[in-house]
Write a structure and sequence with these properties.
Strand content: over 45%
Structural class: mainly beta
Largest sheet: 7 strands, mixed
Radius of gyration: 14 Å
Number of strands: 11
Order of helices and strands: EEEEEEEEEEE
Helix content: under 10%
Distance between the termini: 40 Å
Number of helices: 0
Shape: globular
Oligomer: single chain
Length: about 130
């Protein structure tokens, strides 16, 4: 069993930055795919960023178009932690952010919710204008 715990959310002004962390317990995730998703009030949960189990030759994670160039996903397998660095935040980035882990091995990062087996409880990010 895997447990994921997010942290790092909060209130920030537009243009500011936050770094979200997601710590895993119960199993190391060097061999698993990881992702970040978000859900705004009244909207469905949507893909934000993901990283593959096995790094692509150029080491490229995947990002939603809306965050590309502003957000960066990374992981520290020694710490069992995945990060989401969020820069140039916009009010439309306001949402609850969730990290997710997939037990399936993949060289292509997963963008679909159904590919993930474990989810964190979420952390609120609020961006004021």
């Amino acid at each position: 069993q895997v447990q994921l715990v997010e942290s790092g959310g909060g209130l920030v002004q537009a243009g500011g930055s936050l770094r979200l962390s997601c710590a895993a317990s119960g199993r190391t995730f060097g061999s698993y795919a990881l992702g970040w998703f978000r859900q705004a009030p009244g909207k469905e949960r949507e893909f934000v960023a993901a990283i593959a189990t096995i790094s692509l030759p150029d080491g490229s994670p995947s990002y939603a178009d809306s965050v590309k160039g502003r957000f960066t996903i990374s992981r520290d397998t020694a710490k069992n932690t995945v990060y989401l660095q969020m820069n140039s935040l916009k009010p439309e980035d306001t949402a609850v952010y969730y990290c997710a882990l997939s037990q399936r091995r993949t060289v292509v990062p997963f963008k679909a919710l159904r590919e993930y087996d474990y989810w964190g409880q979420g952390t609120q990010v609020t961006v004021s204008s």
